[in-house]
Design brief:
InterPro entries: Cholesterol_7-desaturase, VanA_C_cat. By secondary structure, the chain is α+β, with helices and mostly antiparallel strands. The protein folds into 2 domains: about 60 residues, Single Sheet (N-terminal domain of TfIIb), CATH 2.20.25.680; about 200 residues, Naphthalene 1,2-dioxygenase Alpha Subunit, Chain A, domain 1. The chain contains 5 helices and 17 strands. The strands form 4 sheets. Strands 8, 9, 10, 11, 12, 13, 14 and 15 form an 8-stranded antiparallel β-sheet that branches.
Length: about 280
Amino acid sequence: MTMQAMIDEWYPVGLFSQLDSAGRTTALMGEPIEVACDADGNAKVTGGDGRVLPVRVRYGHVWSSLGEPKKELFPIPEADQPGRRFVDVGVVRVRCSPLRAVENFLDIAHFPFVHTDILGAEPHTEVQNYKVEIREEEDEVWATQVKFYQPQAAKSASGGITTEYMYRVPAPTCSVLYKTCPPRPSEWDVITLFVQPLAEDLCDVWPWMALFDDETAMTDLIHFQQTIFLQDRSILENQIPRLLPLDPGMEIPTRADLTSIAYRRWLKRHNYTYGAQLVAQ
């Protein structure tokens, strides 16, 4: 299976705040790598063969690539907005395709059933019409005008509200979610999913948030988000097939799956197939 298209992308490989000179060993697309601080305090990533890999430090994370990225790491303008709190949620290891992890993040229909009484609740299970597009200029998948009733949309929310969402996929294993900010209705809270592909069926998921919330303790913000993702993990690890099917006939989509359909089409267009299943088996 060709991997070149995805080899030349940027991937999260650790939290910058946790780096030290001793370093830590992890993996990227099956290759062992070491992530450490150099003598000047800069992040350094080394491949299994000793070669120094490209590095960026952004959004609290160290990013690297086994190849030669053709473009810069995608921008998140809110990361430079004064007054926001930036939350390094940590890491969750999941036995699933990295592409599956992203697709699950894009799925709103599961809220009432997997995140019961937090992000959704019965009988509010219907997904209203929303808009999905592949924005050619940015080369990103976007879903907008997504609305869903939520008993507790955020740690800062008190009582149920109808939350509006926007989803953005700027890279094959990353997604950015913009959602209603309860304390500041004119702004969006930003919740991201940065996925590190360890292997085709194993990944480390690094959620990160940029919020307007001056009240909630940092540990509570982290715990809230980790709770959500641990609920997702049990679903992800039981999905069959483990890899993400790119053939539209292999899984039956519903109207609520428009974002997933666009994401799979976009992956196929770019030959982003690491972690994908291309034909029915």
